[in-house]
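[job 0417] fold request received: Type III pantothenate kinase
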Amino acid sequence: MTFLAIDIGNTRLKWGQYAAPFPGAPLVAHGAVFLETIDTLAESEWKKLTPPGSMLGCVVAGEGIRRRVEEQLELWDIDPRWVVSSAHAAGVSNGYDHPGRLGTDRWVALIGARHRVLAHGAPRPALVVMVGTAVTVDAMDADGNFLGGMILPGFGVMQRALEMSTAGLKVPTGEIVDFPTNTSDALMTGGSSAMVGAVERMHRKLRERCGQDPVLLMSGGAAPKLSAITDLKFENVEKLVFDGLLALQSHRLAL
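[job 0417] inference complete; emitting structure tokens
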């Protein structure tokens, strides 16, 4: 029976259909739509799919968006299930002061990162960077304990904040260059450097805390912009949240 993974962010809904609800299962179909268009999924992209046997999703866009997606899921005879951040799940412990308040996308990505690290060798600390509307930089030790993390504004949020607060900064999107000589490039390079600085600082702190170099995993649509300018060794993982959803679903079925 196929499995449908859904990741609802602040801007887009990403979905993937897998051949089975287990890590490493083949991805048979996937897509992404802006939240403004989710009310047509049942009549467009999802209409072509083989009916999934189960689904699991994470949502940070709010209850209204979740309910609209559930209406589209009525296309199939499945029960919608959504991740709720908890103190422990699938081998990861949540060190947030209030575990339930950790964003579900961050929680699921940490679980995906943990299983990815273990699948490639011995346990190691991991730094999980998600680059979307916001940028999150989350640290996990080699035992799967989430130690804490940072939230920064993403590229678009940074640029809009500067445009609204500073006269004369409504300029086209620039490029990341070593020495910007125009305002567009200065904005893009400044924002990117601020994010990379946060990543490199947390990487250093995690290495000091754990005594070994952490695995650096980057995910999200804008991750290539950051990965292009850091000297740290990293892996771009496009579907890290889906990896976490597969691990959670597999863990639930094994109980």
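[job 0417] notes: Residues 183-210 form the longest helix (28 residues). The CA atoms of residues 81 and 168 lie 47 Å apart.
[job 0417] exit 0
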